[in-house]
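Hi P.,

Sorry for the delay on this. The queue was packed all week, but I finally got your sequence through. Input first:
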Amino acid sequence: MNAMKRARQALSASVVLAGLLAWAGGRALAAEGARMVTVWSDAAPVEFAATAIARAPRASKATARETDSTIRVPRWQLYDFAFTNRSEPDNSFQVPFSAELTGPDRTRMVLPGFHDGDGTWKVRFSPTREGKWQLVTRSSVPELDGRRVQFVCAPGASGVHGGVRVDPQHPRHFVCEDGTRFFPMGYECDWLWALDATNPELPTVNRFLNKLAANGFNYVILNAYAHDTSWAKGKTSDDDYGPPPLYAWAGTNEQPDHTRFNLAYWQHYDRVISALNERGMVAHVMIKVYNKMVNWPAKGSPEDDLYFRWLIARYSAYPNVHWDFSKESNNEKDLGYKLGRIKFIHDHDPYRRSITTHTDLATYDNGAYNGVLDYRSDQVHSKWHASLLEHRRQHTWPVLNVEFGYEHGPRGPQDMTYGVVQSPEEVCRRAWEVCVAGGYGAYYYTYTAWDIIRPDDSPPGYRYFRQLREFFESTGYWRMEPSDELVSEGFCLAEPGREYIVFLNKPARFTLRLEGLAAPAKAEWLHPFTGQHRSAGTLGNGVQQLITPDDWGEAPVVLHVGKRREP
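Then the structure:
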């Protein structure tokens, strides 16, 4: 087929530059509208429309030179390049489709693409460097092969920080791509995507996420798909979303077609991940789950590869995504399979998003994940401080205890959706033990953690966890190390000679050894439940005799000495 005939054929290709939502505190960036864009095949130019999704006006013509200078994609902003043709193969989900991108400083990336219905294939991209870029599609389908687009990556919007990665300078902690520090305050909501499944405006999701963001949660843990729970099987109430309103594949969970995806489900999932992205929340996506009654593709099968590749193609461009091989991954006994799937993610994710896996204590402990995963995420329900210290000792990386307690409902200890609950105060106390050990935690509420979801509840733990994050972000926590030997009671996190955090599970007399202070340091008490602060005076070098405030009852107490060192 000659070049002019290819240029004239009715492939009805369109590039959709989808200005979705900015990472980290972001806001929707204003769409520049639709233009006629010159896109090159391997031999001849073909003109078609480039349309920004958000409220795009009617298209207007532009020359190729104008296109090169006016198509501007802000750094770390998500855009979709979409290509359509009139004739679809028998199974469009199995059509090989990708794009090669070249950018500033000889940057080269290969992005997997995906089918998105109505004869449309997409390449989803968020540029990482400012300057000129070019995209070239690759496909076994001639009409989808060799399409070229040129565009410019512009400076990102204020408050947009890029993806969250392990800090190479402080490898037990996290930092954004632009160097902004990130203190993860986790929140588990496995079935978040089941809310508003048939409403693209996401009224419930948006209201819920606004509440979480206002309470300091910036790291949401959710399943890519989950079907039901064994302890609340079927529809037990109007708030029970297991089984969910939409299924992830064609067919049903009883008779799935794992070679085809349910686009309504995944387009809705796109909107949920975008809603998290807009608010600066990490989406910790658990690709599989072993105890939520999902009929998965056979391990290592072409359908298994298709599923993993599909997730990477749709979601790796989101700067807020972290990958998790599986929730309850200890239930998968085949270590070779787990390591193979993790390698698959590494090999196919062009952005190299952070990867972990949930609850695989023995495999973490024997070192099989060292150098393979980016950080450790466990569920540990006892000895919270001691276990975190031991897990830090085993390997230098961030350690998250993402499941250590479940706050009960408003009617008290008998108000639960799962067989175990704790008081808000006990869950908060455990979180402090984890954080003062140099780790991070995640919050569970019995009415949002699993398939029964009451997003309008406002449990006391929300305020407790907001106060915890606010406190740590006022410190130089990333420079501090567990230093329990400095106190006679409780636990201590310290940058000796500069800053100290002491946590006591109950009021007590205790000693704190201070050494290397250049001058006496200001000290302050914090009540972790009420948020009340009280001066503890100034403290100098030596062994200090201290007693907690005598009118704060039997609650835990925090002491902060000194201040963080500025960069």
